[in-house]
């Protein structure tokens, strides 16, 4: 800041939203770039890549978040060959983080989790449709997922029977959607907690355990399930993948229910650890139980919150 005739003079670069957004975008791009080059701890840094974006957005607003996403994308574009790293970062973190903040941060200010929870199902569904469209000329979505699974198993030095590969292919889209959704939620919660402890948060932290989906949302994965059952042989993977990825918000709601119910028990932490271990070992049955819990909490209670 300079002075002119004794009066303060402010410029564009004195705007904290610009500074916070630029810093957040550069740090996020650096974390992703570290992972893309396969450097030590790269995977951990990749999962933390959206944290600087949420720090900028939850501390300085939508404009700062938008600046962070643009700066991060431009930074990756300038230092990485090709568009794939930039598109990956934007599709996995940049755009969904911007959508989550834009839909969740309300006037007041307050944070409403209804639309962000919906977007955690709709955004991966959109990416799944896009992947199916782009892979259409080379055997469709199933061929693309199967190739990715086989490459991953080869790099790990593992050989799996064809039946196991088929199971992984069927669940791969949903697993990716779940892990990305959890990463976004964890980074957003971490950023909110960090800012709130220092009195820098724009809005109070929401009660994510009380978040509810709109009443119409479960119809979307149900319609995809019907399309899967009616699809002919060889064309059923796309509607199945859409059904699974759009069920992720219901699963997250079930996780919230589980945390709420176990909060009353003194042995809460060991029970949660046991449940998460069982979820990892028995992924599909555990996921179905969580989805059922989420549906029961929203539609089984006498006075559920009204999210129309």
From TrEMBL:
The keyword Nuclease is assigned to this record: no
Keyword Membrane: yes or no?
Answer: yes
| UniProt keyword list | Membrane, Transmembrane, Transmembrane helix
The record's InterPro entries line, in alphabetical order, gives:
DUF2232
Q: Membrane-spanning residues where?
A: 20-48, 60-80, 86-105, 117-137, 176-195, 237-257, 269-296
Pfam families recorded: DUF2232
List each coiled-coil range: none
Output this protein's name.
Answer: DUF2232 domain-containing protein
């Amino acid at each position: 800041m300079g002075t002119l005739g004794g009066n303060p003079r402010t410029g564009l670069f004195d705007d904290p939203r610009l500074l916070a957004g630029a810093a957040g975008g550069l740090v996020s791009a650096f974390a992703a770039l570290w992972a893309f080059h396969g450097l030590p701890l790269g995977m951990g840094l990749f999962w933390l890549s959206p944290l600087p974006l949420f720090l900028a957005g939850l501390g300085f607003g939508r404009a700062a978040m938008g600046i962070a996403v643009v700066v991060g994308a431009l930074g990756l574009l300038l230092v990485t060959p090709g568009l794939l790293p930039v598109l990956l970062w934007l599709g996995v973190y940049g755009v969904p983080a911007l959508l989550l903040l834009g839909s969740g941060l309300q006037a007041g200010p307050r944070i409403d989790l209804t639309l962000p929870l919906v977007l955690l199902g709709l955004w991966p569904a959109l990416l799944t449709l896009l992947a199916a469209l782009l892979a259409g000329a080379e055997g469709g979505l199933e061929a693309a997922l199967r190739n990715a699974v086989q490459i991953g198993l080869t790099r790990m030095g593992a050989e799996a029977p064809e039946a196991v590969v088929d199971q992984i292919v069927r669940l791969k889209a949903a697993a990716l959607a779940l892990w990305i959704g959890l990463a976004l939620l964890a980074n957003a919660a971490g950023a909110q907690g960090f800012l709130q402890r220092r009195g820098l948060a724009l809005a109070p932290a929401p009660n994510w355990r009380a978040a509810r989906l709109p009443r119409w949302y479960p119809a979307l994965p149900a319609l995809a399930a019907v399309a899967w059952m009616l699809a002919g042989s060889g064309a059923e993977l796309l509607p199945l993948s859409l059904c699974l990825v759009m069920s992720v918000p219901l699963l997250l709601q079930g996780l919230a229910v589980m945390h709420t119910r176990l909060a009353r028990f003194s042995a809460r932490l060991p029970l949660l650890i046991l449940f998460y271990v069982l979820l990892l070992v028995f992924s599909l049955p555990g996921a179905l139980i969580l989805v059922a819990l989420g549906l029961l909490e929203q539609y089984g209670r006498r006075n559920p919150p009204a999210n129309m």
